[in-house]
Structures are given as C-alpha cells and as structure tokens.
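User: Is it possible to get a 3D structure for a protein together with its bound compound? The compound here is magnesium ion. I've pasted both below.
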Amino acid sequence: MLLTLAAERKVLFVGGKGGVGKTSVASALALARARNGGRVLLVSTDPAHNLGHIWDAHVSDAATRVFTAGGHVDAVEIDPQATIERHFAAVTATMMKLLPERLHRSAKAHLELAKTAPGSHESAVLERIAELIDQGMDRYDLVLFDTAPSGHTLHLLSLPEKLTGWTESLLASRSRSDRFAAAARGLIGGEDPQADADSELRRTLIARRDRFARMNKTITDDTLTGFVVVTLAEKMPVAESLDIVRQLHGLGIDVASLVVNRRSPADAGAFLAERRKHEDTCLHELRDRLRTVPMTELPLLVRDMAGEDALEELAALLTAA
Ligand SMILES: Nc1ncnc2c1ncn2[C@@H]1O[C@H](COP(=O)(O)OP(=O)(O)OP(=O)(O)O)[C@@H](O)[C@H]1O
Ligand SMILES: [Mg+2]
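Assistant: Yes, that's possible. Here is the predicted structure of the complex:
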C-alpha cells in the first residue's frame, strides 16, 4: 500500500512525533521505491540530521547518491546556513550595483546583520524545500521528505502563503518606485545605470514568489503530494497524530497514509502479548477517528535501523504490507 502510494505521488512528506521512526520509515520507503526502479530524492529537513548515519554515507546540502539498484536514492540534508549564504551573496551583488560606492561598507554590514534575523533559518529551509520540489519534479520520480518532529514541520508548511504575501507587498512598493524612476528618466533623459540592477532585484523577487506559489499548488494537490503520518500504538503518539491530521486538513494537505511503527509481537511471551493488547486499544481509537486513511503496521524489530541490512529488512516489510 505504502509502496503504491510512493509510486503514484511525486512528493511525500513523512512526519510525526519525535522518535517514532520517521527517518527509518522514509529511508526504507526510499529504498523500496528505488528497488522498484524509481529515482528517489530523499531529503531531511530536520536540523538534527541523521540520514548520513542510517545510510552509512556522507550526506550534505547537495544531493549525494546513497543507493543504486534498479532506480536510485539521492540524499540531501538541508543546511539552512548554506541557503542563507547563497541568497545573501546574490542580494549583496545586486545591492552593490544599486548603491553608490561610498555606501557599500554600511550596506554590507547591514546585510550581515540581516542574516541572523529571526525567522531567516526557517524561510531558508522553506526556500530549499521549494527549490528541491522544483528540481525533483523533473529529475526524480519521487521527492521524499523526512521531516522534523511535528510542530516544526507543520509550522514551516504553513509559511509559503505568508511568504508569498510578503514578497507581493515588496513587489508592489518596488513597482511604484519603478514608475517614479521611469518617469524621472523620461524627464531627464539618458541611461540609468541603476535600472538594470533594480530590475534584477525585481526578477529575483518574482522568481521567489513564483516558486513559493508553485510549491503551494503542488503540496495542496492530492494527486501529487501526500503526508505520511508515522506513529506508535501508544496514547501520546496517537493523540499527537490526531492533532497533526487536524492541522494538515487546515493546510489543505492530503493525509495519505498512517504507519504504526514498532508493533509488539503477540507470540513472544506474556509481557509483550499484554503490551500488544494495550496497543490494540490505542489503535482502535486511531482507526475509529481516521476511517478513510489507509494504515500500515510495522513490527518491532530486534535491532535498530542503521546500515543497509536493517534498511532492507524494513523495506521488505513495507513492500509486503
Ligand atoms: N520497527 C522498528 N523496530 C525497532 N527499532 C526501530 C524501528 N523503527 C525505528 N527504530 C529505532 O527507533 C529509533 C528512532 O527511529 P528514527 O530515528 O527513525 O525516528 P525519528 O522519528 O526519525 O526520530 P526523530 O524525531 O528524532 O527524528 C532509532 O533508534 C531506530 O533505529
Ligand atoms: Mg528523524
């Protein structure tokens, strides 16, 4: 079921409460999809990355091939600082063209300060997500996001609309000043060396606005994008999953699948059997509340998820489920 979903959609977000198995499930799903011939881009948005650990490879902000078989898996650990540096380098270059030389030093100092402004990391992560979705649409069959524990991710996904609005108002004020500048040029005559830099800044803003708008459209289109909620059959994770589902509905993002991880075996002693019974009660509530969302259960495994063998085991279970 989950593998079918991964074949049908272009973008999947894997999310849930801290420690429930998001990274393990996202990685196993990536591997299973690649074994099926898919080209997968696996992206960690969590500042506390561990894709590198689980795939036993060096993973960075640039896509790195971590698995080849049939298709392949390229992995990215989003580094917001790298995005911020790229963004500011571009803005600085444009600003320098716009401003007279005597102002360069103070403008640079100002931009340096802006790098650390509150929210700059968040919007950089979002910008990189939008960029990777854009690139992924062409070059990959599936872009799979391993996200940070719930609250953080949902907050991020609610940002593109706000950011689009922000760019829009900047553009509006720019086009006002553009008109003044054009009128002034008309009066005085001759070339304006600042005009090129100015329209460059405009183009950058428009490109950014368009990218966020495209992302918004993609992630709210349930033929393209789905959210996979990973949970455990325990009271707190179930409650939190219901909360996540509610927030996703609010954002217009399709809750495509539930994965209940680490299910205890019924046939491995009285203790675990008793535990399984308790889990059944919790699951019952979850099923009851979310009747239409397909659910996949994964067993508690003996070892934890690091290295290819463990991933293969979980991928095989996902494929069979
Ligand atoms: N089915 C399973 N059986 C046994 N151990 C598991 C299983 N799934 C995950 N684990 C282990 O549980 C731990 C947490 O898993 P994982 O890192 O995938 O969770 P996460 O939701 O990504 O955590 P975080 O919120 O910190 O990013 C890891 O040590 C992993 O190896
Ligand atoms: Mg994780």
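The longest helix spans residues 159-188. The radius of gyration is 23 Å.
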